[in-house]
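TA notes. Do not distribute before section.
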Amino acid sequence: MKYYIETYGCQMNVADSEVVAAILKQHGFTLTNNINEADIILVNTCSIRENAETRVRGRLKVFQQLKKNRPDIKIGVLGCMAERLKEQLIKEEMAVDLVVGPDSYRTLPQIIENLKEKAVEVDLSSTETYEDIFPFHYDNNGISAFVSITRGCQNFCTYCIVPYVRGIERSRSPESILKEIDKLVENNFKEIILIGQNVDSYNYNEFSFPQLLKLCANSFPTVRFRFSTNHPKDMSQKLIETIAEHNNICKHIHLPVQSGSNKILSLMNRGYTREQYLDLINSIKANITDVSISTDIMVGFCGETLEDHQQTLSLMKEVEYDFAFMFKYSERSGTYAAKYLKDDVPEQEKIRRLNEVIALQNSLSYQSKQKDIGKVYDVLVEGYSKKSKSQYMGRNSQNKVIVFTSDKPIEFGTIVKVKVENFTSATLLGKTV
């Protein structure tokens, strides 16, 4: 059988789709990029915001039309949306034949092969990490690869659906992680991104994330390492020192703050205060040379006043983020906030506040890029520029995209020195030196 797969959402979903592809490949299924020749279409979904689910529902309507011409084709929904809605998804979407949650991918081949009626498999596990499966990197640049080190989350931020659709937190063994990285290095991957819902809380038999990161960096000294996502309440001084001590650990930290108001942070159950977050930022900047810092910011959460919003803006100015992911709050059914907190900020006011946050961050990003002019960075070459094959693109250690020219051809996957000469709203511009 041939299958076609689409992935929506976070890095974890991308990594999960690669696990799914590996499992299906082991059972004789063939991946196709042509949706019209697929026997089954799989959609790996996200539930973090309403917009993410709306996009998936739009695609399912397209697949429903495809099914009218090919009644034999099967449609499967995987991941967080499958776990959140379960049987409800099959009732609401005529196109859907099977619904499989993120801890049930091992059963997917049998479900597909034995499918006679609609099927739902959404049991969450307290132990499943897929650590014995080497992911099939089917849609990859061949240079950077995700390696999942934890699954699940138990922070229970009041706005977040993830603990309910991903299950409790569990960590992979260091041995299995190193084994996967070793295979990736054998296949000439140059950059490894360690991922989890919260990498900072990695703990395998008291073996911590700073220890794991140090082990990876020392075991593979020619490989670049990144990691995501961090949680401020779990980020330690030891982790900051580990990053500073190793040249092959990239100097970029994504540290979601969500809000600059202690009142809102408490309502969100984030587990830290504004003051603790800023102390952490100061330590990062004091210990890691030329570090870049990015964040997530949510506006319009339950009870957020104009004063709370202003505190978020003032925190942004104090930290001077290099870039940020910015959202307005959307209520997710099943979360604590949906059950017990009132979504009382009007939609138009949410949009106004979000636009204010975006405008400020655009200004901060402009200043960040301006400071980069004249600097020389080591850039991992990922490919040609999207606009022209006369230019290359890659990322520096700070996770900033650089488009650059070179007097001679460059092999993808190599590291070159690039001097920054200019910038656009999205990228730095330069040339090799």
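Switch to the second chain here.
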Amino acid sequence: MLTVAAFFVAWAATSAWLGQVLPFPDAAFVRAKVEKLAQHGDDYDILFVGSSRIHYEIEPAVFDRTLGELDVTARSFNAGVVAMRCPEDGYYLEQLLRCPHQRLKWVFFELMPVTEADLVLRGTERNTYWRDGKRTWLLTQHFSSQMADTWSRSGLWTRDWPKKFSVSARLAGAWLEDVTLCAENLSQFGRGWPLLEQKLAPSTKRASAPKRDLVGDGWVSPSTVKPLIQDEKRRAKYERAYAALLAERQRFDAGDAVSFEAVHAKIDLLKSAGITPLLIVPPTVAAKRYLPASVASETSAIMDFSESTKCPELFAVENRLDEDHLSASGAEIFSQALAREFVGRLRKSAQKPPATGL
């Protein structure tokens, strides 16, 4: 018994040590931005964090220029990441705050509920690197909430019980995968090679490093597909979704208690670091946008661009790629609108920027 206990203690200690000394995992899109901020984090006053709706849609150069036109000087960095979901975003935010950030005063982050990871990332480092005990516990709570909701609808034994079992089996499978990936990540299994390579061939490491520093200000043009205005089928689909948005009275999804907890954890993390959190609801025409009423009532730091009458240009066909994403022209408009609203809030609160920036 003592031998088994000693083994697990040694395993846990070794895994923890490896987690401290190993290079940051080679997670797609994430590693480049973490390494950029590890080197230049003190250069920025503002960070933007979220999914592709942030990564592709907020241009720091446009945002900063608009601030300058309104007599506010600041430098921002787009730390958004494609396919980012909650709770990965919470872990990612913690890593960003470990980077130098002496000037950092504001972090804009996208409001997102707890969801399963994108299936496109399955089998990649992106699907594993963030799975620690805290994030796995959130997913476990989310799983329990979904299971309870599945079996509480229409009673326990109804004619749709086969569907309930099917949904339950899928949820249980996803949860078991979450737990397995957490164990794999915490064990640091297979991650010793990068450290050995770094020690044995440091010149190779130095030669490849500059390539990962090509993230610039973090923004990437979203124009990777045929513009919506040039594709009749996609345009018709978008126009139907937009019409449904205009007809929908209840635009928001309150999510569950676990998602609410995850949002508050990010807010508390930023505030404890002396940073002001600002929450963004991007301009999407999805049937439901995540914004719990309890969050909306507790904070005025929510910038909701999902209301089509607020900035109609963001919903014009010529400025869209699809229901969820803006085109390059839309990203420019969004960046300008976000900067103007930000400055308006600063002035409303009579908060004056210091001489070195915001």
